[in-house]
Amino acid sequence: TRFVWEGYRLLQEIHDDIPLTYVYSDSQSYELLQIGEVAPQVTKSGAILNGKADQIILPRDWDQNWILNTRRISTP
Fold it and tell me: Residue 32 belongs to what H/E stretch?
């Protein structure tokens, strides 16, 4: 496991090359809003996309009804 820190704030844990990203309420806060796991980006044909995954992280306990469209990407 690797850890990415910014001062005393944990920004990311990386287990088996899969990052777990921490999102805080603002740049000076220690109030954790969400922990987001980024899955590998794989196309329907099985090609693994290079680069960083785009992600939208919804703060914990927020109503999800305002999201207009979502899609699930299955991983192998």
Answer: strand 32-37
* Adjacency order of strands within the sheet including 18-24: 2-6, 9-15, 18-24, 32-37
Query: Residue 26 carries which DSSP code?
Result: S
Three-state DSSP state, 34: strand
pLDDT in tens, 36-59: 666 666 778 888 766 554 445 555
Where do the structural domains in the chain lie, given as residue ranges?
A: 1-76
Q: Which residues contact 39 (CB under 8 A, 6 or more apart)?
A: 18, 53, 73, 75
Per-residue pLDDT tens digits for 3-48: 999 888 888 888 887 788 888 877 787 777 766 666 666 778 888 7
